[in-house]
Amino acid sequence: MQKDEVTKFILDALSTMNYDVSDVTVDSPLGPSGLDLESLSVAEIAIQVEDTYGVRFEEDEMETVALLTISGLVDEIIKRASASAALSD
Q1: What does the pLDDT read at residue 89?
Q2: What percent of the chain stands above pLDDT 70?
Q3: How many other CB atoms are there within 10 angstroms of residue 12's CB atom?
Q4: 3-class state of residue 69 by DSSP
Q5: What CA–CA distance (Å, rounded) separates 7 from 22?
Q6: Among 63, 27, 69, which Cα is nearest to 42's?
Q7: b or e along 46-69 (b: 16 or more beta carbons within 10 Å of the residue's beta carbon)?
Q8: Radius of gyration of the chain (CA)
Q9: Which of 31, 41, 53, 72 could form a disulfide with 68 if both were Cys (CB 3.0 to 4.6 A apart)?
């Protein structure tokens, strides 16, 4: 799993959800000082990540996820996917 691929996935998902991603960078926060995603939008991204990458974010983690940057979320997805793959070996 490559960082660029996951970043593109997140940006495409946000775009599909009608967020303007034209000025978004990997350093853009998901929450109030950046994209200002609502909690339902954060949950929707989490569901799409789980469906695509098999990485699960628990409900009580959503507030923490909302505080991440795009890059932080991508890193977390890759870290969890790698840990999950290591467990299944």
Answers
A1: 64
A2: 99
A3: 12
A4: strand
A5: 14
A6: 63
A7: bebbeeebebebeeeeeeebbebb
A8: 12
A9: 72
pTM: 0.90
On the CB side of 30, CA atoms within 13 Å amount to 28
Supply 49's token pair.
């990540």
What pLDDT was estimated at residue 39? 87
- Give the 3-state DSSP-derived string for 20-54, with helices as H, strands as E and coil as C: CCCCCCCCCECCCCCCCCCHHHHHHHHHHHHHHHC
Tell me, what amino acid is at 54?
Answer: G
Q: Write down the pLDDT at residue 3.
A: 95
Q: In this structure, how many other beta carbons lie within 10 angstroms of the beta carbon of residue 77? A: 23
To the nearest 10°, report the CA torsion of 74, 78, 83, 87.
Answer: 130
Q: How many angstroms separate the CA atoms of 5 and 66, rounded?
A: 20
Weakly modelled stretches of the chain, pLDDT under 50 = none
The structure tokens listed for 52 are: 């695509």
